[in-house]
Amino acid sequence: MSTSLPWRRGNQDNALEKARSIEALRADCMKQKGFKYLPSLPPATILRNRVRPGDYATLKAYRQKYGYGVFSQIMYPSDPKAMGPASSWDNPNNANMMRLGKSQLAAYKVADKACYRSASGSVLGKEIDSDETLYSQSSEAMRSREDRALNGDAKLLELAQPFGDCLTGKGYSVKATNPTSLAARGRELYMKKMRDFQQTQSARQGGDGGEGGVRLRPEDARPLHQAEVKDALDDLTCGKDFYSAYQPKWMEINTKVREEFGMP
Do residues 138 and 261 touch, judged by C-beta distance below 8 A? Predict the structure, then answer.
């Protein structure tokens, strides 16, 4: 079902307007089903820091402190730019759900899925009934468009080869030299190191290797964060010309996908 609401094409505020409309419709729908739902979106400071500008000076300043934005979550837990746990957002509806009994909670979840689906259909013209579905569909859309627009771009392919060669010369493992793989290399590497780190810390603390309840201390993460920062700066040095061409194209795709899916 398509929407008749007057979205302003090309305006980055479209995503926020759509998200607010979905939340309002969701709340009305839940009220009709006998449940309380508060229209809720993360604070603007968190929204702004989800996507970071990509010019060289901005990237360099960011990477000097945060690396790829992985272990910085432990080093700077209250810093919104690091997206650490203390800077994250707690949806106020979670507290309401916690007060429901088992049968009420089950009914609430069924109603919310239906309302989410109805609201998303009205505003986005898409079948989305949960945040998981939203991120799954938007991620797939992003990957598909990145592959077409970035991995098929002749200029980016030309710039990717010396970028990869430079990284290899500095001792980094480069498994693929297509533009999206090169751009994601460092963050994906340190996301894996984070998972390994969490498992190691869990085992030391008597856990089962899972993430829940693990204390991740800055003093334990510091060596990995320092290595991440060095990797990120070397990556930027090698890819200076590449990123100046890649980032604007990537940002355009990202903005369009977020607008399409109502993700501020």
Answer: yes
Considering the domain boundaries, does residue 32 fall inside one?
A: no
Domain count, the chain: 1
CA distance 57 to 156: 20
Return the CA Rg of the chain: 21
**pTM greater than 0.85 (yes/no):** no
* Tokens at 44, concatenated: 């603007």
> How far from chain centre, in Å, is Cα 228?
19
Range of weakest confidence among 120-124, 152-156, 212-216, 247-251 = 212-216
Residue 18 CB-density burial (10 A; 0-12 exposed, 13-18 middle, 19+ buried): buried
Query: Which pair of structure tokens corresponds to residue 226?
Result: 């320092």
Selection from 146, 122, 123, 126 nearest residue 135 by Cα: 126
